[in-house]
Amino acid sequence: MMGLRRCAKTVLGILILLAVWQLAAVSGIWSAYVLPPPVKVARALAAMIESGVLLRHILVSSRRVLAGFSIAFGLAMAGGIVASQLKAAEEYYGGFLEFMRNVPPISLIALLILWFGIGETSKIIIIVLASFFPMYLNIRKGFVSGSQKLLEVGQVFGLTVWQRFCRIVLPSAVPDILVGMRIGLGYSWRAIIGAEMIAAASGLGYLILDAQQMSRSDKVIAGILTIGTVGILCDRLFSLLIRQVTRIRE
C-alpha cells in the first residue's frame, strides 16, 4: 500500500511538471525554439528510438562508463586495503589524493587530450578520476571501521592477517563498499557526459551537443531526459542490491 501511494505521488508530480511545462511553452513567454512543448520533445525522442540512434549513443556511453567505473573500483579497493592494512603508507600518498580529490576532472580534459588525443583513453581516465574518490573514501571507511573486538577474537583463534581481513573486515565493509559504488556510478555518468560534450563523436553527451549546434532544442531536452532515466535505473539497481545485502546480513 505504501509503495502504491508513493508511486501515485511520483506520477502526480510528473504530471504537474508536464502541465507547468506545457503552459510555459504555449504562453508565449518563451519561443518554441527555446522551450519546445512536451509533445514536440516526445516526438523527437520517439524518432530517435525508432531509428536506433538513441540506443546506439546509450550503448557507447554505457560501455565507457563500465570500463572507467571498473578500473576506478579496482583502484579504490586496492587503496582501501592498503589504507587499512598499512596505515603508515597512507601518510606518503594521502596528501596527493586529497589534492586530486579537489581538482574537477573536467578541468583536466584539455591536458588529457594533449597527452592521449580524443580517443577512448582520455574519456575513461576522466571517469576514473570522477568515480575513484567517492568509492575510495567509502571503502576505506568500511575497512578501517571494522570491529576491533572481532579482530582480537580472530587473532586469539590464530587467524592470519589476510584471513582476518577476508573473514571479518571485508564482510563488515560490504555495505560501505556498495554505497561507494552507488555514488561512484553517479559521478561516472556526470563525468562522461561532460567529456563527450567536449571531445567525442558518439555518446549521449555528443548527442546533446550535436543537437544544440543544429538548433534542435527538442532533441537536447530528449537527451537530458534520457540521461536522467538511465541514471535513475542504475541508481535503483544499486539501491536494490544494497537492500538485499542488508537483509541478508540482518
Structure report:
The protein is mainly alpha-helical and 250 residues long. The chain is 83% helix and 0% strand. Helix 5 packs across helix 6. The longest helix is centred in the last third of the chain and has 38 residues.
Quickly describe the structure.
The protein is mainly α and 250 residues long. It contains 10 helices and no strands. It has helices at 2-26, 38-51, 53-85, 90-101, 109-116, 120-144, 148-156, 161-198, 204-213, 217-249.
| Major sheet description | none
Q: Count of helical segments?
A: 10
In terms of DSSP E residues, the strand content is under 5%
Low-confidence stretches: none
| Structural category | mainly alpha
Please tally the β strands and state the result: 0
Backbone shape: globular
Q: What is the straight-line distance between the termini?
A: 24 Å
**Nearest-angstrom radius of gyration?**
23 Å
The residue-averaged pLDDT reads 81
Helicity level: over 70%
Taken in chain order, the helices and strands follow as: HHHHHHHHHH
Topology:
Elements: H1 2-26, H2 38-51, H3 53-85, H4 90-101, H5 109-116, H6 120-144, H7 148-156, H8 161-198, H9 204-213, H10 217-249
Helix pairs in contact: 2-10, 3-6, 3-8, 3-9, 5-6, 6-8, 7-8, 8-9, 8-10, 9-10
